[in-house]
Amino acid sequence: MANGRPRGSSLFSGLILIFIGVLLMMHNYRGFELGHVLRHWWPLLLIFFGGLKLYERMAGSRSNDPGASRITPAEVFLVLGLLALVGVVVAVEGVKEHFPDWVSGDTTAVDLDVAPEAVPANARITVRGGHGDISVRGSDEAEVRVNGKKNVRSWNQTDAQRVAGKVGVEVVKNGDGYEVQPTSRGDSRVSVDMDVVVPLKSSVTIRNEKGDISVSDMGTPVSINNGNGDIDVRNTIGDVNVDMRRGDAKISGTRGDVKISGTGDSVDVMDAAGNFTINGEFVGPIRAEKVAKGVRFVSHRTDLTLTQLSGHMEAGSGNLEIVDAPGNLTVRTHEEEITIENAGGRIKVDNRNGNVEVRFSSPPKEDIDITNASAAITLGLPEASSFQIVADCHSGDIDSEFDGDSLKKTTTQSGDSHFEGKYGNGRGPKITLHTSYGSISIHKN
């Protein structure tokens, strides 16, 4: 009795199931990267299928059975289903490799094994990282030492050990300098944390893509370029230059100049013997404290110069506060609530859409020039102050607690106010105040 199902159909189904099963078994238990193979070799499935049907046709011709090589609906659905299964496996593998944060998995840490490298005491050293934290500190020894961890995120221990075995850190001579870098980068499943010890007087440059950077106890300039991560620099003698894209920056105890550029979150600079320059857009607060040679801050809406800062400055969230700045102060901005206390030098403020308040605990000695728009100006002075003043307020009132025969206030019918004159026994500084659609208040502290 003849069988209604073509005999080649069962042969094809069996072979294709064996073939796919072997691939999946190797993928699960032998570290076989199925996605890498099938991305290039998946057409072999169609070649295998076509070759088998050709063989069946030739065999059917010899046995006078022309229907033996026809493709049945069951075979079509089998091929489509297996291709879909393989596609899911490949997609999951790709997500695990390129987007490890999207999937669960364990992180395996493997110790770095790097031999120390002798270098000149004043060597130029570049530390290049990919993903991972970098720590650099100075030492009296004329060598580079590297410790740390290789962190591999994977769904199984076997795969983690295999990937970790391909990654290391090397110290290589490049021209007149030395480079410390991972031997393999680009695999997003792997991060390399490096603790690098370098000669105290070496010049250090650090470049990283993602991860925190810390530097301490260096006797020469430090340059940092980081893509995503926090930066902490402590106890350095030379200049500190930072170019960042995302994260917080904290610089403390440096005897050189500090320059920070790019974008990021918060910035803190404390106890700097040089000057502090920041140029960029930072969403978090910018704080400076005890900067001997002053602060220069430039962003898309603020241009600030302090020639000296013995107290502190904080800018952020629409507020700018400056306390105890013995030197000159110049700021041009908008939409900032400005508070200045105990400035010792000349003051020049140009603002709009934000109140300006300036207070003195001792009589000012230098000129004060404040221009505002659509907001108020408040000036607090000791009663013993001496000054010359010219104040104009368009569509607003001027209120002063200082009075005398030489001080005169006039108001127009259109609502403008003018206040002018001299107060005190000495010559005193010149105070110029101007605002529109806001008030001016001058009171005694």
The number of helical segments is: 5
Number of separate strands: 34
The major β-sheet equals: 17 strands, mixed
Structural class: alpha/beta
Amino-to-carboxy terminus distance: 115 Å
Mass-distribution shape: elongated
Rounded to the nearest angstrom, the radius of gyration is 36 Å
Proportion in β-strands: over 45%
Mean pLDDT: 86
Q: Helical proportion?
A: 10-25%
Low-confidence region ranges: 1-10
How would you portray this structure in words?
The protein is an alpha/beta fold and 445 residues long. Helices cover 19% and strands 45% of the residues. The protein has helices at 7-29, 34-41, 43-62, 73-98, 157-164; strands at 106-111, 117-118, 124-128, 134-139, 143-154, 169-174, 177-182, 190-199, 203-210, 213-218, 222-228, 231-236, 240-244, 249-254, 258-264, 267-272, 276-282, 286-291, 295-298, 303-306, 309-316, 319-325, 329-332, 337-343, 347-350, 356-359, 368-371, 377-381, 387-394, 398-400, 408-411, 417-423, 430-436, 440-444. α1 (7-29) packs parallel to α4 and α2 (34-41) packs across α4 (73-98). The radius of gyration is 36 Å and the shape is elongated.
